[in-house]
Amino acid sequence: MANIQMVDVRGQYLQIKEEIDAGIQEVIDSCAFINGPKVKVFQANMESYLNVKHVIPCANGTDALQIALMALELKAGDEVIVPAFTYVATAEVIALLGLVPVMVDVDPDTFNVTADIVEAAITSKTKAVVPVHLFGQVTGDMVEIMELAQKHNFYVIEDNAQAIGANFKANNGSISKSGTIGHIGCTSFYPSKNLGCYGDGGAIFTNDDKLGVNIKKIANHGQVKKYHHDVIGCNSRLDSIQAAVLDVKLKRLDQYCEAREKAATYYDKNLAGIEGLVVPVREKRSSHVFHQYTLREQTGRRDELQAYLKEKDIPSMVYYPVPLYKQDAFKHYAPDINLSVTEQLCNEVISLPIHTEMNYEIQDIIIEAVKSFYK
Length: 375
Ligand SMILES: *Cc1c(COP(=O)(O)O)cnc(C)c1O
Hints:
CATH superfamily of the largest domain: Type I PLP-dependent aspartate aminotransferase-like (Major domain)
Largest sheet: 7 strands, mixed
CATH topology of the largest domain: Aspartate Aminotransferase, domain 2
Shape: globular
Distance between the termini: 22 Å
Strand content: 5-15%
Strand order of the largest sheet: 1-9-8-5-4-2-3
Order of helices and strands: HHEHEHEHEHEEEEEHHHEEHHEH
Number of strands: 12
Bound molecules: pyridoxal-5'-phosphate
Number of helices: 12
Number of domains: 2
CATH architecture of the largest domain: 3-Layer(aba) Sandwich
């Protein structure tokens, strides 16, 4: 029986082992573990890959979101709009900073917020919106959300932890990398992310010079000049060994995105048409880098399907089983809300294995298993 995994970090490593090992060894030989040359090289390469003015590396994706919010200089009680169908980190940092997470629904096809959903949640206290580019595609209404931001004077922070490398095409045809459309973009380099390191890591992107200075300062104890602290900051750094790994993988990121897309297309071709199962819907203005390949099981047997696959040694995951507003930590923010799409998705979604080392042989096993469930 093939050993099928959700994500094959080791298989990918074996393909690039020589370069990775050399990069790590170089850091150890130099002993420049913190803010060494590797971090600066990776930062510069990331800036040119994304075509963005400032990339500020940090310790993880959650920190990236927290620092981005801190850089906006909001005050306690200010509202930040966030989808209820996301990973906890997106809303957690909002609450942690004494801001109010205003949890909103998502589009049932793309799992992302729309401009209409955001607009309906705007109040005089709205100071920021955090669209999450869920499962690997950019929120299609980013341009319209930026227009709302200008009109109502709030910031847009993209949670780009799952969509690094995706391309967004505006109506005028201009292409931007995901995470560079809002005022600030945040990402995570957690090992299983599309651009993952071998530990924790994250980064913040912006084209705004003033925000760039602020973000850099906050991530470094609120100082620009050593031992002179202008604001309360935090200590959030990407270490040099992680930067060495990331720099090797960044060169292959487009190739990795293509491998995931190819695997997704093969799933689509073979799973489309099964009654009660919905294959992923593509955003019109974004490419899809398939951090997850997420189906919707609409016959009420999602958990049964998952157990059935497990019996055949096929892993699958439910991202995410519980709406944020039903979590004990968050329910006091919105005791009465019930977002119908979020509720439905929490009951229907199931993600199949997808990664850069996928091949048709593995996929055929998975596809046959899913098909036999519905026979
Ligand atoms: C992974 C992830 C994060 C957090 O990243 P960490 O590096 O684990 O802190 C935030 N938001 C989303 C949508 C994520 O998938």
